[in-house]
Amino acid sequence: MRSEHRLDPQPWMTAPDTVAVLTALAKGGREARFVGGCVRDALLGRKITDIDLATPEPPERVMKLLADAKITVVPTGLKHGTITAVVNKQPFEITTLRRDVETDGRHAKVEYTDDWEADAARRDFTMNALFCAPDGTLYDAFGGIEDLRARRVRFVGDAEARIREDVLRLLRFFRFQAHYGKPPPDDAALAACSRFAHLLPTLSGERVCQETMKLLRAPEPASVFALMREQGILKHFLPEATRIDRLAALVTIEGVVSSALLERADAVRRLGALLDDSVEVARAVASRLKFSNADRERLVAILRDRDPDLNEPARRRLIHRLGTERFIDRALLNWAGLVAKDGTQDRRETESWIDLIRFAREWPVPEFPLKGRDLLEAGVPTGPAIGELMEQLEAWWIEGDFAADRKACLARLGELALNRK
């Protein structure tokens, strides 16, 4: 299992917080090793965000070793053998080595083990089954390093068996293909995914949502969604995803617009580009994926009717009504739709769209100068009249392109209040 390859010391491996956790665990007499994403991404030269560790020590023993070292312990997944150590606000997820005893396609019953290879054998992909000792020694039981270098996403052992253990691995395959793989995809993996795609509806909306949104954040997700459509996968969990062409166009556009104007790889916006243009579709997808209220409302707003070209006053009115971010969402989907339809756009058209986004980003959305108390002080009686008059005043202010200041609005209030007597 020991590999001929080594991982050169990395700052995240030798940081004092990391060393403190490793030292505490080593006092149990057995070595803890880095595992999973941190090892994979370090070998690729990518930024490390999460540090995961594996140990043959049982969870109760792990907690005692950490507590003895005065390290904060959070039992985040104790029933699965996982706890989190926190040092100076840096979390370290530590999991006891496990082997599967029973699986049902959604959850696994496990038992603890001291067998490193048995633990590696229960993981999803070979590139995630890599262990790294604190000194940089790599352990690779299933050819994960070779697969990683070839950008080949391959299941550990039998692909069908891995998916039967947890159907979510089917979606994880496509997510990893988007983030780590390159064409052509592994034949055995693709065949297994196609065979078991009909089981996707058995997964919870939350789990499907998590994988879908991570896939949408990939550098080039459209080609993987196209692959899922070709393999008959998409129809089982996201049949409304008919605008892969527009998603591809949006990703291209994101690379053209300055990052100062636009947050790239926004998963909700990208999902909107991928779906049919329908408020009903937006609501159905948001419900199925268990979206938060904020994300649901945003997706619905994205898929409402598109707006035509607007002059500056009309732009300001729409930005005021929608808010800056939703206005930009609509502008980007309009733009992506045209690019998907026409194939390309000339420089002048591109600069025109960028100018529109810059206008939205830089225009300070004004706040209506008056409050309800101003109407009360002007003698307007409490009740429905307050709301009605506020609506009239704000409509007048908006129609005047937001030019009226507080003094002018108070004067207009006086005129309207006088007319109501």
What does the model show?
- There is one protein chain.
- The protein is of the alpha+beta class and 421 residues long.
- It is built from 21 helices and ten strands.
- The protein has helices spanning 11-14, 16-26, 37-44, 59-68, 116-121, 144-149, 159-165, 168-180, 187-196, 205-216, 221-230, 244-254, 267-274, 279-288, 293-302, 312-322, 324-342, 347-362, 372-377, 384-399, 406-420, and strands spanning 2-6, 33-35, 51-55, 72-77, 82-87, 90-96, 98-103, 108-112, 130-132, 137-140.
- It has an eight-stranded mixed β-sheet. A two-stranded antiparallel sheet has the order 7-8.
- Helix 11 runs antiparallel to helix 12, helix 12 crosses helix 17 (324-342) and helix 13 crosses helix 15 (293-302).
- The longest helix is centred in the last third of the chain and has 19 residues, at 324-342.
- The model has no long low-confidence stretch (mean pLDDT 93).
Write the layout of secondary structure elements.
Blueprint lengths: L1 E5 L4 H4 L1 H11 L6 E3 L1 H8 L6 E5 L3 H10 L3 E6 L4 E6 L2 E7 L1 E6 L4 E5 L3 H6 L8 E3 L4 E4 L3 H6 L9 H7 L2 H13 L6 H10 L8 H12 L4 H10 L13 H11 L12 H8 L4 H10 L4 H10 L9 H11 L1 H19 L4 H16 L9 H6 L6 H16 L6 H15 L1
Parallel strand pairs: 3-6
Antiparallel strand pairs: 1-10, 2-3, 2-9, 4-5, 5-6, 7-8, 9-10
Write out key terms for the chains shown:
alpha+beta; 421 residues; elongated; 12% strand
Helix content: 40-55%
Taking strands numbered 1, 2, ... along the chain, how are they ordered across the largest sheet?
Answer: 1-10-9-2-3-6-5-4
Please compute the radius of gyration using only Cα atoms: 28 Å
Label the structural class: alpha+beta
Counted beta strands = 10
Mean pLDDT: 93
Low-confidence stretches: none
What is the distance, rounded to the nearest whole angstrom, between the alpha carbons of the first and last residues? 89 Å
Largest sheet: 8 strands, mixed
